Amino acid sequence: MTTLKRINGFWLSMVLALVFFGAVHLLISGGVLNSFYINTLFFMAINIILAVSLHLIIGITGQFSIGHAGFLAVGAYASAIMTMKLQIPFSLALLVGGVTAAVAGLLIGIPSLRLKGDYLAIATLGFGEIVRIILLNVDYVGGASGMTVTHLTSWPWVFACLLITIIVIANFTNSTHGRACISIREDEIAADSMGINTTYYKVAAFVIGSFFAGIAGGLYAHHFYIIQPTNFGFLKSFDILIFVVLGGLGSMSGAVIAAILLTIVSTFLQDYPETRMIIYSLVLILVMIYRPKGLLGTRELTSFFRLRRAVEGGKQNDNKHTVA
Amino acid sequence: MTTNIPLLKADHVGIHFGGLKALAGVNIELYPGELVGLIGPNGAGKTTFFNLLTGVYEPTEGSIVLGNEKLNGLAPYKITRKGISRTFQNIRLFGELSVLDNVKVAYHSLARHSIFSSIFRFPSHFSGEKEIEEKAIEFLKIFKLESYMHEKAKNLPYGQQRRLEIARALAAHPKLLLLDEPAAGMNPQETQELMNLIAFIREKFHLTILLIEHDMSLVMGVCERIYVLDHGQLIAHGTPEEIRNHPKVIEAYLGEEVS
Questions:
Q1: B238 forms bridges with which residues in the sheet?
Q2: Is A250 touching B (CB cutoff 8 A)?
Q3: With a CB-CB cutoff of 8 Å, which residues 139-168 of chain A face chain B?
Q4: Kindly report the CA angle at B200 between B198 and B202, in degrees rounded to 5?
Q5: Measured CA angle at B18 (ends B16, B24), to 5 deg
Q6: What is the CA radius of gyration of chain A?
Q7: Contacts of A178 in chain B (CB under 8 A)
Q8: Non-local CB neighbours of A29 within 8 Å, separated by 6+ positions
Q9: How does DSSP assign A104-165, residue by residue?
Q10: Where is the ABC transporter domain (chain B) (predicted)?
């Protein structure tokens, strides 16, 4: 019964997503949206993919990783090399970008996920910087001047990747594997003593997260015409981290909403370059003061609907909650 | 009730942290179906011994054997799957998860569907999740926790949290259950309920239980045998009656409490 309901909810959201896709597609091909809005839209979608992929690592599994831009860079450069140097089709290049980033995640994850908290954060920060410095010094990918990339990212690609990311990570989270990851976040020693292979799940979350960061990197590279190592510094990692923290650690819809809002805020603040960072920072400070657990806390958007239904259906229970 | 082959045999187990000898030469044998107490003053090494049994620490000397498998050096999750599960002195529930999900986590090792089948929602995902859910609900009913099912674990009253932690440990299907001060912070009535619960689960799940406890009425009341630790060494072992009158134990610990 509940599975049936859940499946219906799934198809309903799929239909809504496709309607949204079709509408935007018509707007773009009809020339209604100018390139500024299209740009913002693509950037927003890429940011959502990044936010959701980091949400799996930090929000669900509780591993504080601040080198996410490193995986973005690996994916961006790997896919750009595929299309520009090896003339491989874009679809395959995206996949290669994702897989390369996932392999990087595996190689980094196995040794560094023994570390906890602050120490893991520093190790992942180091990884991000190493990637950037290596790219800076490899002439094959253009060194500091970067690499020019053909514009291949289109709305169907962006949307498909976004949808797949969200579905995969939501499906992972809502399974016994996702619960295993959450139990690690809640109490690693207890998770261990419940028979959860904590190392395996930490690495798994890390690999899945970096795979999608790599996909985002592929989209990113083929959208901005040029990629440079400076685009992937630790400030980029912090941008992604902020989406996750601001949305509420543990809430995927929170991460999505935060990514959308902050992309809009930072895009429109581009008109005021002098005060941009000040206003952006003020927004962050205010949100953290008034909603210290993030916009949604650990809840999901869907839980609000469920809650309302429960309240409507259970009015006769009201008396039970009076103070005895 | 007891047979001659021990379920768990700790042979000269010890551990030192740097120069500090926390435990040395501890010999403990547990027989199937027994309820055994482990007592001792603060800092005697009781919880350290639990941590050795469950793989949180690896013993620096001696061996631990469950059935006929050596446990030394195994990762904690593997030891749990071999049949030892535990509760903690300071309750360690998954606070943000619901009561039901807490128990579901313990069923994780029984799940046969892979990460891939969950991501792509293969039929094996649905059947696997359904099986876990049904078993977990059934389990909560045994412990009369089903009314709290969708409540976050951290919002439960203290006594119920203890109950849930024991339920969760049992859901991992242990042969040997380790309870680390289950009555800590409970009033006499709650302790009485706990004693009933322990008797009940022992009957129902055919368990062997090792219990750390400070509450002497509980230990003396329910345990068949008692081991006494002091300063990292076993100083006595025997029936509650023997322990009550053992000079070393009285000297170390029980003097003002019991006599």
A1: B226
A2: yes
A3: 168
A4: 70
A5: 15
A6: 21
A7: 118
A8: none
A9: HHHHHHHHHTTS-HHHHHHHHHHHHHHHHHHHHH-GGGTGGG-EE------HHHHHHHHHHH
A10: 8-256
Residue A65 falls in which region: left (phi positive, over 0), alpha (psi -120 to 50) or beta: beta
Give residue for tokens 């990629």. Answer: A227
The amino acid at residue A245 is V
**Tokens (6 digits) for B26:** 């501890």
CA torsion angle for B81, A191, B212, B71 (degrees, to 10)?
40
List of chain B residues whose C-beta atoms are within 8 Å of the C-beta of residue A177? 115, 118
Pairing mode, if any, of strands B208-212 and B176-180?
A: parallel
A54 Cβ under 8 Å from any chain B Cβ = no
- Domains in chain B, start-ordered, CATH in brackets? 8-83+174-258 (3.40.50.300)
Q: Tell me the torsion sign for CA atoms A60, A63, A68, A70.
A: negative
Pick the closest to residue B145 from B103, B190, B195 (CA basis).
Answer: B103
A219 neighbors A161 (Cβ within 8 angstroms): yes
pLDDT, one tens digit per residue, over A119-166 is 999 999 999 999 999 999 988 888 888 888 888 888 999 999 999 999
Q: At what angle do helices B188-205 and B158-171 cross, to 10 degrees?
A: 10
Under a CB-based contact definition with an 8 Å cutoff, are residues A75 and A219 in contact? no
For helices A198-221 and A176-186, give the axis angle rounded to 10 degrees.
100
A222: which 2 tokens? Answer: 């083929």
- Residue B259 to residue B244: CA distance in whole angstroms: 8
Give the list of residues 6+ apart from residue A156 with CB closer than 8 angstroms, or none.
A21, A25
B residues 144-203 near A, CB within 8 Å?
A: 168-169, 172
| Distance separating alpha carbons of residues A57 and A65, to the nearest angstrom | 7
Between the alpha carbon of residue B181 and those of residues B158, B178, B185, the distances in Å are 14, 10, 9
Question: Closest to A186 (Cβ–Cβ): which among B97, B109, B119?
Answer: B97
Rounded to the nearest angstrom, the minimum Cα separation between B199 and chain A is 22
Q: How many CA atoms lie within 13 A of A289 on its CB side?
A: 6
Whether pTM exceeds 0.90: no
Residues 6+ apart with CB under 8 A from B92: A187, A189, A190, B165
User: For residues A185 and B96, what is the distance between their CA atoms, to the nearest angstrom?
Assistant: 10
Please report how the helices A234-247 and A276-290 are oriented relative to each other, as an axis angle in degrees rounded to 10.
30
What was the ipTM of the complex prediction? 0.89
Per-residue pLDDT of B76-101, as tens digits, reads 999 999 999 999 988 999 999 999 99
The residues near B133 (Cβ < 8 Å, ≥ 6 apart) are B100, B104
pLDDT band at A298 (very low <50, low <70, confident <90, very high): confident
